[in-house]
């Protein structure tokens, strides 16, 4: 009561406090609420952000670097919802042991299991501390962002706030509240006054003003929200109007940095945070609008692609860097705007700034586009490879082939761009033969970037699999078992409306297929990862003006150097990009010239390179069909559907000059 009286007498220190609870990753601030803070501030509403996910770090370990690594490892386990379970209602210990045993069987590390067990009884204390700190801000409205594993922690804090000060209004938004999930959350948790069920830039100001002014009539006019009234929850129609990118401001990360400074004053470490700052240059997916990938639930019901104009995107990125002094940026876009290869990326390259940018891309790249990424400082990408089987890619509606995927992986590896991708399996309609072919292919690819893991496909909300399962011959059986264990308080029917991932039954699936994947394909993937992790790229071509050299082993310390000439050289040059087999032996066009190094540089490389020399090498007089067969047998050429792709990476002039410079510096150091 005293707090309520003080509120009425003195007003709010902050009109709105936005909150990020565990388990949002700590390596970068959450762009959603940081952007909304900019919107609210511009409207004259005093706003701050409480980054309680950061303030949870000392519960893991005294050193912030150790704590952040452990926290974010758990964040990336969101398939299994350990973060939701951690803050879920605590019943008897047997249910907890069942959950932890399930995590153990899923392959979660013993150290993480021990941390989860140790943290579980301490979450209540953490929530109480958060409530005390938040209410010291004297807010009128508290807004939670929730994605991945933030529901239970947000509800716990909302409950603690309402217990202390019921007049505070609670709003929850984010991807966990999109569509019918928002209504289910509002129905289940009376602590939540409003859920926002879609994009919020256009509605957040009128929503906050209505709540601060206790204007229930105004709430009814705001589209796409669920709000509480005495006799239940009212859902306002969503007008489905997509937010234009010029309505999305530069995010305000100041509270994230303030929280870090406060933590660093009393805890060692944390100097490497943030590892990235998030940026957003587009929403939606231009490919998904044309052909919705069967398993993808991103973008919910707002697939329409919207992007910043290239000049505006450059100004936006420059402003994020200028304000924060950080050039490591993580684009949260689902797919890069294809216009950016010739526009935005060129301006970034010309700026001279040492950017390190992450983007999601489609894997149908041209070599020149990979070069544009590298020059601009896009040193990390997620290309949506998903599979190395054309029949399976067709089942996904990816609009791409195995050769295109491998071509893109080859060029990205060659450019030194980090590639993040998973090899997925478990698609309705797939056949064992596709995986048998894949298992013979993988050993030929140990010189290019491997997948992070072989992982099962999930049924995600808003995906075609979830929206129309009957079209794929599958049956949705309910939310995954992890939801049932992490939300034991939620009735099954409502949980089905809250969940993002679902279990399914595919009665047409041959169990032998899964046995093959586990016993044969998974070991091949792990062997690929071990090989690349230990040795890196180990198959290169250096093209001189008249001949080429195949380099086996690392470029810096090759095991063998094999001369390549004649029709074999011509085929490998022409097949740098996938090409019809009937055109492999045409004279190389002008585009092939960019693959060659000049004669002096080529001779210098051969003169200083160690390794066993094979001067005759691949220069045997052969017919065209014999040449193709030989290259395929040697693992240098991959054929599919009448086309062929050369597998070796090409070491071009700039990379070779850099290699020789490092070699000369090494010799100079030895001499001194």
Structural class: alpha/beta
Mean pLDDT over the residues: 94
Residue fraction in strands = 15-25%
Helix content: 40-55%
State the total count of DSSP E strands: 27
| Number of helical elements | 28
Main sheet, how many strands, which sense, barrel?
Answer: 7 strands, mixed
How far apart the termini lie comes to: 78 Å
Strand order of the largest sheet: 2-1-3-4-5-6-7
Overall shape: it is: globular
The radius of gyration is 28 Å
Unreliable stretches: 1-10
Key terms for this structure?
672 residues; alpha/beta; 7-stranded mixed sheet; 17% strand; 5-stranded parallel sheet; 28 helices; disordered N terminus
Task: Give a written overview of the molecule.
This protein has 672 residues and is of the alpha/beta class. Helix content is 43%, strand content 17%. It is built from 28 helices and 27 strands. Strand 25 and strand 26 (643-646) form a beta hairpin. Helix 20 (432-441) runs parallel beside helix 24. The model is unreliable at 1-10 (pLDDT under 50).
